[in-house]
Each structure stands twice: as structure tokens, then as C-alpha cells.
Amino acid sequence: MENTRNSKPYDLEERTLEFARDVALFCKRLPRSVSNIEYSKQVIRSSDSVGANYIEANECLGKKDFMMRIKICRKEAKETAYWLNLINGTNDENIGGDEHLKEAIELKKILSSILEKSK
Fold it and tell me: Which CATH number characterizes residue 40's domain?
């Protein structure tokens, strides 16, 4: 991940876009194996979905719609962490997925906070 998050503030739409892009690039570097191919498909879908649903939440039709979209974002961030854990746990060498796992967990916490504050 770039250090832009620490050097300048930017919105969550940009952050989730960067997260999805970084996860996709990480998956491109994985060793080719049956499990990595399948896990990569899953983690790319879930990481992309965090940002896509966050954009939908920002264009919501009302508070109920917003809350549901944020819950979906949080669920997808949690699922992304699950797939990243599987990738990290099924590869012999240190493949460098820890920063992506940390970001997935941090996004889940941010989205949980948004939900709490929106009640």
C-alpha cells in the first residue's frame, strides 16, 4: 500500500478503490496453483465489492438503504480477510499478503464505526 493514506487525507471511496486494486495486483504475483487460482477469484470479487457497495451507499435512497449497503461492505471486507487468510495459510513462502489482510480488517472496523454512528 502507498503511504498516501498517512501523508494526506482522502475519502473512503478512494481508499476502497486502492484496496481492490492492490489486492488484484497481489493476486497476479501469487504462484500458480489450483488453490491460489480459486482463492484469487474469490478475494478479488469480495475486495472489489467493498468499494462498489460503498459507492452505492453514498448514492442511497434513504437511511435504511444506506445502512444495508454499509452492512454489505462490512460483510465483504470480512470475507476478503477470510480469503486472504487462506492464501497466506496455504502458501509455503512469505508471499506478502499481511498488509492487505490488515487493510481488510481496518476497513471492516471503519465500516462498523460508520454503522454505529448512523443508528
Answer: 1.20.1440.60
pLDDT digits (tens, 9 = 90+) for 2-54: 444 444 445 999 999 999 999 999 999 999 999 999 999 999 999 999 999 99
The Cα 11–Cα 17 span in angstroms is 10
Q: In the 8-state DSSP scheme, what is residue 59?
A: T
Q: Is the dihedral of CA 20, 23, 27, 28 positive or negative?
A: positive
pTM of the entire predicted model = 0.87
Instruction: Report yes or no: 84 and 97 within 8 Å, Cβ to Cβ.
Output: yes
- What is the rounded CA–CA span in Å between residue 104 and residue 84? 9
Q: Provide the number of structural domains found in the chain.
A: 1
Query: Residue 27 belongs to what domain range?
Result: 4-118
